[in-house]
From TrEMBL:
Protein name: Multidrug efflux MFS transporter
Cellular component, GO, one term: plasma membrane
Membrane-spanning segments: 12-33, 53-73, 80-98, 110-131, 138-157, 169-190, 202-220, 232-248, 268-293, 305-326, 333-352, 358-380, 401-419, 451-469
Domain called Major facilitator superfamily (MFS) profile: residue spans: 15-474
One function term, GO molecular function aspect: transmembrane transporter activity
Lineage: Bacteria, Bacillati, Bacillota, Bacilli, Bacillales
Length: 500
């Protein structure tokens, strides 16, 4: 029986189920390969900076393509877009399975990413259009389960597979799942939307690619190469300039590729600011903790992944619950409560030692994820709720793009702080009796603590902003405002003419 997307009827649960499955496998794939990078280095005899392109390239393609999804969602049907996305993802997975050298594997990841970039904004848009505003919290809570749960279990699953099999097993596991989702979508996914006759501005695509791609590459490379490397500061400068020109061009176009005037809606602008600060804190910490656990404490990748698993499971359970609480109480109380928990646990992580117990780390990480589960989707949904329906594709594309950029910024910032403070602590601890690797390990722990302390202040900014949140309802389309103003000016002039 086919599933059809129709307005003003029951939510399209069939379409959403298929899209959720596709989004889950694509996001899971994003983090699945991180643990396997050392094995790939050995097999292909390449350097760490080279193998890192498997992660960086995936992130860059997402950052470049996600802004274009606002146009794609408006122009094409859900069926055609999803089939294109899952087909690209499946083709990339097949290529990864048979990859015989690194360039082929990198090409496979790029093809996978090109499909993955379409799925998340598409799913969010279907959820926004398919549910009335008073039920969106629960719907977006299910979406939050996918967005947060999938990348969280990635390291655990990857660690288990790598410990027992070759890194190619990661793709062998993904391939049949992707193939089943593709076949299901071919036979069951249908909607009535016809292709809309709007054109994509090619120059905007170029500016967007250079702008967002430059920022992502620059910040993504800063933690490894340092801020003084030409590859870092030149790409950041070029990216920033291109992004400014891109924004100015969008403000002048009658049909922009990405509508930046949605920031006229205050709750959407506020939700973006809170989401950016929270993503910076979360993504950075997701790098710092494995570094402490594996590099300093010598805990295996599998045990490192298992340490994070309870937090991932709790976050997955909480997302739908948080969505229902959002529908009932709004985002403000949830954000304040969740951010308070995040701040407290982040502060506890800034007091790590060489003897901090494994169970303590697990409990702290689980509590931190619990706090974040109360913030992310409610804040994002509250902001999107203020947008008129025609701007939903732009809102979802903007949010997904900001997540990519803020995650890269947060990771680069915290890794830089950790590195510089580690150097300082080595000098401070030189006369303490520690030497060799013990000195380096202790200094690195202190550097990680300093970086976690920065996440406390970043989360504090989000907490202050959350006090200004109000429950949203769809705002007036800003394109209609000038028309109404003109009509109001003309009406008084018409009255005397009528009297005469």
């Amino acid at each position: 029986m086919s599933t059809t997307l129709e307005e003003n009827k029951r939510p399209p649960y069939g379409i959403i189920a298929i899209l959720l499955a596709g989004a889950f496998i694509s996001i899971l794939n994003e983090t699945l390969l991180n643990v396997a990078l050392p094995s790939i280095m050995r097999d292909f005899e390449i350097s760490a900076s080279t193998v890192q392109w498997l992660a960086t390239g995936y992130m860059l393609v997402n950052g470049v393509l996600i802004p274009v999804t606002a146009f794609l969602i408006q122009k094409f049907s859900v069926r055609s877009l999803f089939l294109t996305a899952i087909s690209l993802f499946t083709i990339g997975t097949i290529l990864a399975v048979i990859s015989w050298n690194f360039p082929v594997l990198l090409s496979a990841r790029v093809i996978q990413a090109s499909g993955s970039a379409i799925m998340m904004p598409l799913l969010m848009n279907v959820l926004l259009t398919g549910f009335p505003i008073e039920k969106r919290g629960a719907a977006m809570g299910v979406f939050g389960l996918v967005m947060i749960f999938a990348p969280a279990i990635g390291p655990t699953l990857s660690g288990f597979l790598i410990e027992h099999y070759s890194w190619k097993m990661l793709f062998y596991v993904t391939l049949p799942v992707a193939a089943v989702i593709l076949l299901t979508a071919i036979f069951l996914l249908h909607d009535k939307k016809e292709s809309v006759a709007i054109k994509l501005d090619g120059f905007s695509v170029i500016l967007s690619s250079i702008g967002f791609g430059g920022l992502l590459h620059g910040f993504g490379s800063a933690g490894d190469k340092g801020w003084s490397a030409p590859e870092v500061y030149l790409t950041l400068i070029v990216g920033a300039i291109a992004l400014v020109v891109f924004i100015l061009r969008q403000l002048k176009l009658e049909v922009p590729m990405l509508e930046f005037r949605i920031y006229r809606y205050p709750m959407f602008a506020l939700s973006s600011m809170i989401s950016v600060t929270l993503m910076m804190a979360m993504f950075g910490a997701m790098l710092l903790l494995p570094m402490y656990v594996q590099t300093i404490r010598g805990i295996s990748p599998l045990d490192s992944g298992l340490l994070m698993l309870p937090g991932a499971l709790l976050m997955g359970v909480m997302s739908p619950v948080t969505g229902k609480l959002f529908d009932k109480y709004g985002a403000r109380i949830l954000a304040i409560t969740g951010l308070s928990i995040t701040i407290l646990t982040s502060f506890m992580f800034s007091r790590l030692t060489m003897e901090t117990a494994y169970t303590t780390l697990m409990l702290l990480y689980t509590a931190r994820m619990f706090g974040m589960s109360m913030v992310m989707m409610p804040v994002m949904t509250n902001g999107l709720n203020q947008l008129p329906a025609r701007y939903n594709p732009h809102g979802t594309a903007m949010n997904n793009t900001l997540q990519q950029v803020s995650g890269a910024i947060g990771s680069a910032l915290l890794i830089t702080i950790m590195s510089t403070r580690t150097t300082t602590h080595i000098e401070e601890l030189a006369g303490s009796g520690l030497a060799g690797q013990d000195l380096i390990n202790q200094a690195t722990v202190e550097g990680i603590n300093d970086a976690f302390l920065i996440t406390v202040f970043v989360a504090l900014i989000a907490l202050v902003l959350s006090f200004f949140m109000k429950r949203s309802k769809p705002g007036e389309d800003f394109r209609d405002q000038p028309v109404k103003a003109k009509e109001q000016k003309e009406e008084p002039l018409a009255e005397p003419a009528t009297q005469v």
